[in-house]
From TrEMBL:
<keyword id="KW-0133">Cell shape</keyword>
<feature type="active site" description="Nucleophile">
    <location>
        <position position="369"/>
    </location>
</feature>
<keyword id="KW-0564">Palmitate</keyword>
<feature type="compositionally biased region" description="Polar residues">
    <location>
        <begin position="66"/>
        <end position="75"/>
    </location>
</feature>
<dbReference type="Pfam" id="PF03734">
    <property type="entry name" value="YkuD"/>
</dbReference>
<feature type="region of interest" description="Disordered">
    <location>
        <begin position="29"/>
        <end position="77"/>
    </location>
</feature>
<keyword id="KW-0472">Membrane</keyword>
<dbReference type="GO" id="GO:0016746">
    <property type="term" value="F:acyltransferase activity"/>
</dbReference>
<dbReference type="InterPro" id="IPR041280">
    <property type="entry name" value="Big_10"/>
</dbReference>
<keyword id="KW-0012">Acyltransferase</keyword>
<feature type="compositionally biased region" description="Low complexity">
    <location>
        <begin position="32"/>
        <end position="65"/>
    </location>
</feature>
<dbReference type="InterPro" id="IPR038063">
    <property type="entry name" value="Transpep_catalytic_dom"/>
</dbReference>
<feature type="domain" description="L,D-TPase catalytic">
    <location>
        <begin position="265"/>
        <end position="401"/>
    </location>
</feature>
<comment type="pathway">
    <text>Glycan biosynthesis.</text>
</comment>
<keyword id="KW-0573">Peptidoglycan synthesis</keyword>
<feature type="active site" description="Proton donor/acceptor">
    <location>
        <position position="350"/>
    </location>
</feature>
<dbReference type="GO" id="GO:0005576">
    <property type="term" value="C:extracellular region"/>
</dbReference>
Length: 432
């Protein structure tokens, strides 16, 4: 008997957008109780989930080390602490429930609540003392919202907190969350991900109610990561230009979700040569000088998938213990441009405006992310970082090789499913 996923024999799922695209500030966490703490963790979480996960995941971001031309200067960690209600990763939120953001030991400076798919902002009001914000506009059913907030403490030191929440489905019986969203176009590496707010006991019964097929004819198999996450993918990347259909069946009622696979784009980062080669539909279209993780903080090796895109994110190392001897954060950069998430544990590929020309293509200096040359504010579309951001979509694959990192990238760390051999993937299916 399933402990989640089946109610009265009916599988309840909502097909909402599982990937975010934001032009806001913040740390780009999408979800995460620890989203005031951006950095790549020294080792991946073993039971992490993508942006559509019901359980909070660690926020992530990073920057090149201060010694390699960080023009921002180190700033002590802020005393202000932000709380968002409903909590990050909440599903089935009633449309009449207001979004409330509060801060202790500080004042709020900016709060936005934005529908991920449409970009529509929800109206709200700030209290007279600046310590709380409450939405005044209505929420829409079956919609994913991104909450982005900023605050400062008495010394003017800033902090950010982000969260992603999803409202109740029309049937008012939300249990599972499906990604990517219906009608979307994604890259060839995007798996189908279903996450559950409660542990699933009868995995075979739940998985049997979900069928995934492709117009390419590729065999698609489901794999369980623990009791809360079920992913589907073919043995190799989806065929470019194909259509993927997800059919949800229960008690004679059938629901269909479809999404398109765009052009194939595979970008390979070579940490040894410090170059990234972008291959589209089998043809090399660009080579970009990069700077990846230093010897102390090497970048993960492996196949990763872009799950979120942010035009700017705030990255601060102090909240995860990356500090100098005097206690100041190793980095504190309020607006890192053109940032795209590669893992839940913190790997981003992003713009770097503080590094000199002596960095890119020549030395690895970061805390684990991949940096591309950029300008402050990200306003110059001619920079390598802007070009890569504008020419990438969620679901695109980024392969990192020849890094000094010796840890193994977990397949459930973000959308890193492709790091699991096919035989192991198939063995994780509950339906044989």
């Amino acid at each position: 008997m399933a402990t989640a996923g089946v109610i009265g024999g009916a599988l309840a799922l909502t097909a909402l957008g599982g990937t975010g695209y934001a032009a806001t500030g913040g740390n780009g966490s999408g979800t995460g109780a620890a989203s005031q703490a951006p950095t790549q963790a020294p080792a991946p979480a073993q039971t992490s989930a993508p942006v559509s996960a019901a359980a909070p995941v660690s926020a992530a971001g990073q920057a090149q080390t201060k010694t390699q031309g960080d023009q921002t200067g180190a700033q002590a960690a802020s005393d202000a602490r932000i709380k968002i209600t409903p909590a990050a990763g909440s599903y089935g939120v009633a449309v009449g429930t207001p979004v409330v953001v509060t801060v202790s030991d500080g004042k709020l400076t900016k709060v936005t609540v934005t529908a991920v798919a449409s970009g529509t902002e929800v109206a709200g009001s700030l209290s007279a003392d600046g310590t709380s914000w409450k939405s005044t506009g209505p929420l829409t059913r079956a919609t994913t919202y991104q909450v982005a907030s900023e605050a400062v403490d008495a010394q003017g030191r800033s902090v950010t907190e982000n969260a992603t929440i999803s409202t109740v489905s029309p049937a008012n019986n939300f249990i599972g969350h499906l990604s990517p969203q219906n009608g979307s176009t994604v890259g060839v590496g995007m798996p189908v991900t279903v996450t559950f707010g409660k542990a699933v006991g009868d995995k075979a019964a739940v998985q049997s109610a979900i069928k995934v097929s492709s117009s390419s004819g590729q065999q698609v198999v489901g794999h369980w990561f623990g009791d809360h996450r079920l992913d589907f993918r073919p043995q190799n990347y989806w065929k470019a230009g194909s259509t993927v259909t997800v059919t949800l069946s229960s008690n004679g009622v059938q629901r269909t979700v479809t999404f398109k696979i765009g052009r194939s784009q595979i970008s390979t980062v070579d940490a040894r040569t410090k170059q990234m080669t972008v291959v589209r539909d089998g043809k090399k279209i660009k080579t970009i000088p990069i700077s990846s993780g230093s010897a102390e903080h090497p970048t993960y090796n492996g196949r990763m998938v872009i799950s979120e895109k942010y035009r700017q994110v705030h990255m601060n190392g102090a909240t995860v213990g990356l500090t100098e001897k005097d206690g100041k954060p190793s980095y504190d950069i309020k607006a890192v441009p053109h940032a795209m998430r590669l893992t839940d544990s913190g790997t981003f590929i992003h713009g770097n405006y503080w590094g000199t020309d002596a960095v890119f293509g020549k030395v690895n200096t970061s805390h684990g992310c991949v940096g591309l040359k950029d300008v402050r504010g990200g306003g110059d579309g001619r920079t390598p970082a802007a070009w890569f951001f504008d020419n990438s979509m969620t679901g695109d694959v980024v392969v990192i090789k020849n890094s000094q990192d010796k840890t193994k990238l977990a397949p459930d760390n973000g959308l890193s499913d492709w790091n699991m051999p096919w035989s192991a993937w198939v063995s994780g299916s509950a339906t044989g």
